[in-house]
Amino acid sequence: MNVRIAAMIVVLWPLVSWGQAGKPTVAIEQIATAAQNISCEGWDRSSYDCNADLSEGFRVMLETAIIKTGKMDVMERRSLELLLQEQGLGATGLSDAGGDIGGLIGVDYLVYGTITRFGQLQGGFSFGGIQSKELSVSMGIDLKVTDVSTGLILIADEIAETVQVGSSFSFGDVTQAQTRADPFAEVQRVVSNHIAEAIVTTRIPVKVIAVQSNGTLVLNYGDVLFSPGDQLAAFVVGETFVDPDTGEVLGADETPIGTVEISSAEARMSRASILDGDPSAFQVGVTLKRVVDEDDKGNKRKRNRSGRDW
User: Fold this and answer.
1) CB–CB of 154/143 below 8 Å?
2) What are the angstrom distances between the C-alpha of 107 and each of 111, 166, 283?
3) Would you tell me the crossing angle of helices 183-203 and 50-69 to the nearest 10 degrees?
4) DSSP letter at 286?
5) Whole-prediction pTM
6) 114, 190, 202, 253: least buried by Cβ within 10 Å?
7) What is the pLDDT of residues 47-79, one digit of tens each?
8) What percentage of the chain reaches a pLDDT higher than 90?
9) Are 267 and 223 in contact (CB under 8 A)?
C-alpha cells in the first residue's frame, strides 16, 4: 500500500553555524503534548495516559532515528536526567530559557518540542452503490534544537505529516479493505525519520563518498533516511558567505549538476544511479539534497522553508 505523506518544515536558523568537528552529542528532552489537540481514538484511555505514552514513544523513536544515522551520539535519557539533577537544572527551564543550559557538560545540542496535533482523518466518496474510504493519521510537532554552550536556538521546525494507513472499497455485497497494523506508530516513525534527516543532514550533509567503476554513486547515509526510488538533487558547493560582524555562515554558492535516484539502501550507506547530468561531474564530495515533489509515485510531500537557506 502506498503511503501518502504531506510535510511542512520551517527552518528558522541555519545549522551550518554548528561549528564543532567530529560527532556531536545530542540529548532529547521530554517531548511535551498539547492535550487539547490529541485524539486517542482507538487507544485504551483506562489503562494509561495516552498523552504521556505518545510523548515518550515518539521521543524514543526520534532518539533511535538519530542514532541509526551514525552521524551523532545521543545521550541516554536517564543519563541526561542525572546530569540535570547534579547541575540543579530543571527540564522546564531548559525549554523556556535557553540561557539556563550553558555549561551542560557532555552535551553539545539539546532537542525538545511539543506535539501539537495527532489523530485520525477519514475521507472518501459514495455514489449509488459504490463507496470508497481512506483512513489517514495526522501528526504535527513544533521542534527546537539549542546549542548548549551558548543557549542559542539553532533550529526551529514546524513539522506536519499525514500518512494514509487504510482504505476500503465496496460495491453491493463486495467489500475490499486494507489497513496497517499500527497506524499510530507508522506516522510517528515517518515524522521521527524526517526530523532526524532535518537535524543530521544539516550538520553533516548527504555526500558522494565513492564512485564505483560502473558509475554507481555511494552515499554517506543509509536506510533510515532513504529508500529505493528516492530522488536527490546534486550540486557542487562553491564560495561561502560569512557575516563579518558575527562570523555566521549565511550561505554558499550551489551549482546544480544533475539528479540521482537511490537504487539500494543499507544500514549506513546508500547506492544511487545518475538520472541526468554529466557523469564526470559526479565526484567524491558532491553534495545532495532530497528532491521535493508534489506527487512522487503516489506520495505527497510539501516542504516549505523560511529564514536563511540551510
Assistant:
1) no
2) 11, 41, 35
3) 40
4) -
5) 0.70
6) 253
7) 556 777 788 889 999 999 999 999 999 987 777
8) 25
9) yes
Contact by Cβ (8 Å): 134, 119: no
- In this structure, what DSSP letter does residue 42 have? T
**Does the pLDDT value for residue 214 go beyond 70?**
yes
What are the residues whose beta carbons fall under 8 Å from the beta carbon of 67, sequence distance 6 or more? 74
Helix (H) or strand (E) holding 305: none
**Domains along the sequence of the chain with CATH:** 15-204 (3.40.50.10610), 208-290 (2.40.10.410)
| Measured distance CA(93)–CA(90) in Å, rounded | 5
Kindly write down the DSSP assignment for every residue of 108-123, as one continuous string: SEEEEEEEEEEEEEEE
Long-range contacts of the stretch 249-252 (C-beta < 8 A, 24+):
249/14, 249/16, 249/17, 250/14, 250/308, 251/14, 251/16, 251/308, 251/309
Q: How far apart are CA 305 and CA 13, in angstroms?
A: 10
Q: CA–CA separation, 17 vs 153, rounded Å?
A: 11
C-alpha cell at 246: 558575527
